[in-house]
Specification:
Layout: H1 3-10, H2 27-37, H3 45-58, H4 60-63, H5 68-84, H6 89-99, H7 110-124
Length: 129
């Protein structure tokens, strides 16, 4: 196509507004991003509630008064590491300690709780990794 034809076609569009645009990214794009980065999609409400409950059972200070979306995103970030190093438990526990902190727990929640946190991340946020 010549440049003139392309320019003419560009001017033939409608007066679309932001309301006309599709909301969110197409699922194919989201799936592609997840497969490349390892970042899983946000969980549904039920799964998120189970994940938050699991963390509360481990130690209520893990979630504390943080925004639950932020806590979910820490877990989703951990999923990237799980996908990258699925068999390197020591590395994953070290990263868990860095991602899951709270006042009085600047170095994480200790080895035992970090194992439980990592298990909850794997179970609820990235079970296929």
């Amino acid at each position: 196509m010549s440049l003139a034809v392309l320019l003419a076609l560009a001017g033939c569009g409608s007066d679309a507004t932001a309301e006309d645009a599709p909301s969110g990214a197409p699922s194919v794009v989201v799936a592609s991003i997840a497969s490349v980065t390892g970042l899983p999609p946000m969980p549904d409400e039920e799964t998120e509630a189970k994940y938050i409950k699991a963390l509360d059972v481990i130690d209520p200070e893990i979630v504390g008064d943080q925004d639950e979306t932020e806590v979910v995103n820490h877990g989703r970030d951990q999923c990237v590491s799980v996908k990258e190093w699925p068999k390197e438990q020591a590395k994953l526990l070290e990263l868990t300690a860095k991602r899951f902190k709270a006042p009085g727990h600047s170095d994480g929640f200790g080895a035992t709780k970090n194992k439980l946190i990592l298990a909850a991340v794997r179970k609820y946020l990235c079970p296929k990794y």
